[in-house]
Amino acid sequence: MGSTAISIVLVLIIIVAINVISAGLYSRLDITEENLYTLSEGTENIVEKIATPLTLKYYLSKNLESLPIVYKNYGKKISELLNEYQNLNPEMIRLETYDPKPDSDEEVWAKKYGLSGVDLSNGEKFYMGLVITQEDRELNIPMMDPRREQFLEYDITQMLLQLSQKKDKKIGILSSIPVMGVAANRMQQMQGQRNQPKWFFIQELEKTFKIETIASAAQEIAADISILIVIHPKKLSENTLYAIDQFVLKGGELIVLVDPNARVDPTAAMMAQMGQMPQASSDLEKLFKHWGVDYQASKILGDKEHPTRVNAGGSVGVVSYTLWHSLNRDSFEQDLIATKELEDMLLIEPGGFMLQKSSPLKLQPLIKSSTSTGLVENIMIRFADPLKINNQVKPTGKSYILAGILSGKLTSAFSKRPAAPKSEGKGQPEKIGQPKPHLSDGIKESKILLITDVDFISDNYSVEQFNLLGQVYSQPKNDNLTFMVNMVEFLGGAGEMMGIRSRGRFRRPFTHFLMLEKNAQVKYQAAESRITTQLKEVQEKLSKLNVQKGTNKIVLTKEQIEKIKQFKEEEKKTKTELRKIRKLLRQDIESEKTNLTLINLTIVPILLILTGLFLYYRRFRKKSN
User: Fold this and answer.
1) Which residues pair with 141 in a beta bridge?
2) Which of 126, 136, 24, 149 lies closest to 77 in space, CA to CA?
3) What is the pLDDT of residues 581-606, one digit of tens each?
4) Cα(370)–Cα(396) distance, rounded to whole angstroms?
């Protein structure tokens, strides 16, 4: 009995000792498929290059009893992540953790650093913010929001990069749509309208690069512009096209976004409101033709393998729309770091690129369509609903390039500089100084990023916004923003950030359920097509009805009346069939979800029971022997 008591005491002492020792140690095993909880190689490169000491000041109200468990766990995760940063470069990075209790010096400093506390329902204030100081500079994240968990490493590393890197790269933005924001005039302010902010992707680029607006009538691109982004070019003059041409030949990096139907084009939207035919397409026809790039500005690409669920309204309801491309991992180039980790993008009515066989250049696909694609005229979306448009998409077996890098030794699309336009007063391009010599050939191999959609990078389709403590925060809703900023950084030489942003997702879609929805939608469209055909037939029959001369009465024969009755019965039967298809779709998905839930709930207990039985069996056999 005494030896048993001693054994129990020793076990308790060992357990306590293990807990005390482990509490002072920091270790973590990351078993996620894509190492979501391990610092990326890009972060390691940036942190190891830090040559000036800096301090990470982490303010966390960790002892609040009323704090939700979600924030407690997230606060702990941030602390662990910051430890990893310090461990990468302990000589240059110092980590300080503070608990800003009410009326304490820590709370005073938190407020001085601009950290925002959250008022809890019991009157307490909760802090979870980060300040990074280096010499006389400081940057902060006022509140670490759990909704941005996926971008936690990126946000921290981005601040470290800002402190250690000068903004020596300058980006020029030449755009026909207001990506740089619009200031409301006095009349608009009186009407309650506010300033339109810059698009979020511009705000992201400003963290790493200097941004300069280029006039759409520019005759020259400044020599200090490293990257030129041309967005939705509409009817650019010969002089502006020449300026772009010469910019590339001089070694500048070029990004071109064209669109057969830009929904974010305010001019086109205004034309539509006025009852005019909107001109929502864009092109660089002269340059594309010279480079050997096939692009049809009036044709939208439909893809039957990558449709997007949209609400078509009315009796049509929610359908899979082939002109909105929901792209998955198979659509992206896997050999380039900027795209290999992308998983989910949405393109809105894009066109398609093809490279002519006679072109001496190379067009490397970054994003490509499936082979179940077909082109439709952009004018169709003004007059037809998504289901009718889907029926017009006739697969040709071709795969189109939605985004790609055009590379090679370029030549000029111009034999000489075009004549300068005559000045006609206000609105004309400014006079330039001494013209630069005309270049017929590029000074080096060129890289041009071509993207056949503009809408995808607008805030409407790339980010979702939320308000926290009076501040508006934007959070990516897909990989659209990641792709765009990745490619700019790739061309601009800030490659380390790509490996951080292009990481796996904490939330994964149920691809099997999506496939079930897609298959059911195909059945639904087939049934809907039968109804449409029948409706056309009866309309043709009704148009042939005899109208009694001198009256407005319609004279129907018994045979016609009988046929109408038969049609109504058939219509009722078909609609019932459609409802059954929808019901079966829901049943299939719910059944799959139920089975998956049962598996998740029972698999671990079953494995534990089997393991226990196996161990018991082995022990029993040993005793028997």
Assistant:
1) 130
2) 149
3) 666 666 666 676 677 667 767 877 78
4) 11
DSSP 258: -
User: With left for phi above 0 and alpha for psi between -120 and 50, is residue 240 left, alpha or beta?
Assistant: alpha
Selection from 560, 316, 291 nearest residue 406 by Cα: 291
Q: How far apart are the first and last CA of the chain?
A: 28
d(CA 118, CA 114): 13
- Residue-wise pLDDT for 538-555, tens only, equals 555 555 544 444 445 555
pTM of the predicted model as reported, rounded to 2 decimal places: 0.64
- Answer yes or no: are the C-beta atoms of 361 and 395 closer than 8 Å: no
Q: Token pair of 341, please?
A: 């980790």
Nearest Cα residue to 454 out of 154, 174, 171: 174
Which residue's structure tokens are 């509140």?
Answer: 143
Say yes or no to pLDDT of 32 above 90: no
Contacts 24+ apart (CB under 8 A), 64-69: 64/120, 64/124, 64/126, 66/120, 66/121, 66/122, 66/124, 67/120, 67/126
Main-chain dihedrals φ then ψ at residue 372, nearest 5 degrees = -90, 60
Question: Smallest Cα–Cα separation from 471: which of 87, 127, 125, 145?
Answer: 145
Cα–Cα distances in angstroms (integers) from residue 306 to residues 459, 482, 604, in the given order = 22, 20, 36
Q: Are 143 and 119 in contact (CB under 8 A)?
A: no
DSSP letter at 192 equals T
CA distance 48 to 84: 12
